[in-house]
Amino acid sequence: MATRPAGKAGSWYPGKLADLEGQLNEYLALVPETINDSPLPVPGARVIIAPHAGYSYSGKCAAWAYSCLDLSKAKRVFVLGPSHTYYLKGCAVTTFAEYATPYGNLTVDRDTIQRVKEAGGMQDIPRARDSDEHSLEMHLPYLYKRCEKTWASPDEFPTIVPILVGDNNKAEEKDVGRILLSYLKDPENAFIISSDFCHWGHHFRYMVYSADKDATKLTTLSRLDRAPTGPPIHETIRLLDEAAMDAVKSGKHDAFVDNLAQTGNTVCGRHPIGVAMAALELLAKEATDETKYRFNIISYERSNLVQEPAESSVSYVSAYAIL
Prior knowledge:
There is one protein chain. By secondary structure, the protein is α/β, with parallel strands linked by helices. The protein has a domain at about 40-195 and about 270-320: LigB-like (Protocatechuate 4,5-dioxygenase, Chain B), CATH 3.40.830. The chain is built from ten helices and 16 strands. The chain has helices at about 15-30, 55-70, 110-120, 125-130, 135, 140-150, 170-185, 235-250, 255-265, 270-285; strands spanning about 5, 35, 40, 45-50, 75-80, 90-95, 100, 105, 125, 160-165, 190-195, 200, 210, 220, 295-300, 315-320. A hairpin with a 2-residue loop joins strand 7 (about 100) and strand 8 (about 105). Helix 8 packs antiparallel against helix 9.
């Protein structure tokens, strides 16, 4: 079977191994030695949320999530991302046997792919779309590097299970969460949830503003408008993201979906996050402790502190959940 090429290498991140290694080492060196009083990687942190923009934009933020990710028992890593290249209803799985990175190839777990596909009635990702999609690819160099620190040989690396999570409503996200629940319970599985947060600007068709610093009181700007006389635009962006992050931290899938419906926040990985939250919430209910298995937000950055309506910004978040 075919290998998916590292299509963004040389543009979204360095294509030369030495340059990529230097960049990732630089970002990882900026992460503290402990996070939330825990050594790194955080024991049991088998689920992370991390961004997927070009590394010069989101690589520093992503380093926090990958520093926390516990792969010590992992035999497979699920990578859940949104589709940017075509409209997808439901979910879809890769047909490739391997994904290339500048470090080397990562092997797809074809058996698990088939089981998940059948259980969820999922589609195949068209290969051209798969090759163009960045939401999965951007995580693989970091994952490969973390695997190198955990195992002596690539032969020991966990396999990957790449899944695109498309446009699903609240009930459909819960259904996918139920399918993934058994895999979430297994300590030999880790999960990477791929998402950026607020995309603000004319290009993203999202230019809301709150003069009252209230996420429930939003007006829409035009790129031809002058800068607001009230709080700068970037404070509204932070306000929106903080509301979304609070919903993520709540552990309540409904709270997250409802927050995005209220604010319209353009979290591109809302559906992968929603699926993960639905599964984690089910796990917490089974444990009769609904305070368990919640995400901890550990890094938040924006590509630009927007002042003028003609500007744009994308937000990045890193988080982990201990299972």
